[in-house]
Specification:
about 625 residues; alpha+beta; seven-stranded mixed sheet; 21 helices
């Protein structure tokens, strides 16, 4: 056979094998596309003609116990670009030129975002948190540009600004670390806002709803052909607080009006431990963290203090602690509360002279007069008789030096002060330590919340409650209520009823005739004690403790007010405590009933009624 023919046959065979191999590859590819990975390729094809515009679900609302919404949601809009239709750079640059001024962005920044969307082929978020005013302007331009869409969402809104800000907290964008640690089941996106502090953070899982979204079929120009699926969002669960709106507002307004603007005010239900008010000043407006895109906040500093003075600030309780000293004295069978002690304005402790706050002296004082006039010399004498160990024992019964147990981060325990701790540290205890302890000075430290817990124990005649501020959670999907708060007694300061009766009588006498006259309200039984804590770093701090009830009824509220550098508990903190009590009982200065918010919440002219003569 000629060589040329052999060569020709070889080439034909080679071509045949190549053709067979090519057909085989094509067949395998067809099997892969049509059978093995049919669903995957179908999904890819669908993705090319569909786009998803996500909608952030409204967060659950936060209510006070009297039904006022203090954290809600406001309408907001997001602006998207769908990468389809005209894709040339001049077109994108013209789009950026027209829309950038409306969005408050530079043309370069907007063009960059549009280009990113073009490369990815996915819907790209151009701007979020747009106000209704900005949205109207965008709608006018939208009809001239295919592929841009406005999506209605919500943003967090705090209608009363700084109201209970340290308790409610605020939102912020997720950090890289938070994104890495996120719960996949929560379906967060890169632009998601999450709770950063307070209730917003603690109950993030409950407050966050289930996001929705519009699944759109678009044509080659980016215009929507039809809505494939409109997945409705599901709002988060509502949180119901134990706070009383009017009491909280009275506390915050009072702290703002002080000369220093720094302090804390706490109110508890003396029968349950529920928090009726918990204010810390200075506060902050959490709205600054979730502004509309077109809101100018250049003049507002976001360097706010998250320091909650009510649960983290520790100070000497000063003369409010004289109640502890009095209880310690009443446990001594040899102590006579009617016996008088002369106060010349000073007390001779042998190695040192201790002065009374009233330099000219109070004269003859018994227990009733000593508490009413807050006489230091009287309590120096009492402490020297009963001893520091007896006073320390009463501290332990009321759980001084330990956290209150409230479910808030960063609570400080304060410091119990007594000879046992000194002995444990192998240090000496002197008579001067006993005298300082008797009037609430020295190394003794409490938080405003701890003092309120103590006040509630006095009012309940011994029950040391764990404070709580969440009442219940209510699902907006199912309507199911989950009870969170409950009454819990941590300890009982078990002293005779006669001891508490005498303390009550002395505190009532202090309100009616003594240093706590600021808290006197006609028609109410108010039991109070003032305190002025020495401060080596500046002006003294002011304390005021009071619990109250209607005549013939058990006390139902205790309030504690602390004004940093306030100097005098009576004049600086007393008026704030009085306003909080008036707000709680719904009375004016004369004890007459005034318009109460709770009975009007569902009234259609509620705001007008509040502004009318009855509410003035």
């Amino acid at each position: 056979m000629p060589a040329t023919k052999i060569f020709f046959n070889t080439r034909l065979k080679l071509l045949f094998f190549v053709a067979c191999a090519a057909c085989g590859i094509i067949a395998l590819r067809l099997v892969d596309i049509q059978v093995l990975r049919h669903s995957a390729y179908l999904e890819m094809a669908e993705r090319n003609r569909t786009q998803v515009l996500y909608q952030t679900a409204p967060r659950g609302r936060v209510f006070t116990s009297d039904g006022v919404v203090v954290a809600s949601n406001a309408p907001s809009f997001s602006f998207y670009y769908l990468a389809a239709g005209r894709k040339d750079i001049p077109y994108l640059q013209q789009l950026a030129k027209d829309f950038a001024p409306k969005l408050g962005m530079s043309e370069e920044a907007l063009t960059e975002k549009l280009t990113e969307g073009l490369k990815s082929g996915k819907a790209v978020l151009l701007a979020e948190n747009l106000s209704p005013k900005t949205t109207i302007a965008l709608q006018e331009l939208q009809i001239y540009y295919p592929g841009v869409y406005l999506v209605e969402e919500t943003k967090r809104d705090y209608p009363y600004g700084s109201f209970a800000s340290h308790l409610i907290g605020y939102l912020g964008s997720m950090t890289d670390a938070e994104w890495r640690k996120r719960d996949p089941s929560m379906n967060y996106r890169l632009n998601s806002k999450i709770g950063k502090n307070g209730i917003e953070k603690k109950y993030e899982a409950e407050l966050k709803g289930e996001d929705g979204g519009a699944y759109l079929e678009v044509d080659y120009r980016g215009r929507v052909r039809r809505v494939i699926e409109d997945r409705r969002w599901q709002p988060g669960s509502d949180v119901h607080l134990t706070l009383n709106f009017d009491v909280q507002r009275a506390a915050e307004d009072g702290l703002k009006s002080t000369s220093t603007g720094r302090g804390a005010a706490v109110a508890l239900d003396t029968r349950t431990g529920a928090v009726l008010a918990l204010a810390s000043a200075p506060a902050y407006d959490p709205n600054i963290f979730v502004p509309y895109n077109d809101t100018d906040l250049s003049h507002v500093s976001k360097n706010i203090s998250e320091y909650n003075l009510a649960v983290q600030g520790t100070y000497p309780p000063a003369s409010t602690f004289k109640i502890i000293t009095a209880i310690a004295a009443l446990t001594d069978p040899d102590f006579d509360p009617s016996a008088h002690v002369n106060c010349p304005g000073h007390y001779d402790a042998g190695s040192r002279i201790f002065k009374c706050w009233k330099r000219t002296g109070h004269g003859m004082m018994n227990l009733l007069d000593g508490l009413a006039n807050s006489c230091d010399v009287y309590f120096y004498d009492v402490a020297a008789r009963v001893g520091a160990s007896a006073i320390e024992k009463v501290q332990r019964a009321f759980m001084f030096g330990r956290p209150t147990g409230i479910d808030l981060p960063g609570e400080r325990a304060g410091n119990m002060y007594g000879p046992t701790k000194r002995a444990r540290n192998k240090s000496y205890w002197f008579i001067g330590d006993t005298l300082n302890l008797s009037i609430g000075q020295g190394e003794l430290l409490v938080t405003p919340l701890k003092l309120a817990q103590f006040g509630a124990a006095l009012a309940s005649k011994g029950n040391v409650y764990r404070p709580y501020y969440i009442d219940r959670l209510v699902s907006n999907r199912t309507g199911k209520e989950t009870q969170v708060g409950k009454t819990e007694i941590l300890n009982t300061a078990d002293y005779p009823a006669s001891t508490y009766d005498l303390i009550w009588t002395s505190m009532k006498y202090t309100t009616d005739t003594g240093t706590a006259r600021w808290a006197k309200i006609p028609g109410l039984d108010v039991y109070a004690k003032t305190g002025t804590a020495q401060n080596p770093h500046g002006d003294d701090h002011a304390w005021f403790l009071a619990f109250a009830g209607k005549p013939g009824e058990e006390p139902s509220i205790v309030v504690v007010v602390f004004v940093e550098y306030g100097m005098h508990g009576s004049s600086a903190a007393g008026p704030i405590a009085r306003e909080m009590l008036k707000a709680y009982f719904g009375v004016d200065d004369l004890g007459n009933p005034v318009l109460q918010r709770k009975s009007l919440l569902n009234h259609e002219n509620y705001e007008e009624l509040l502004e009318g003569p009855a509410g003035e």
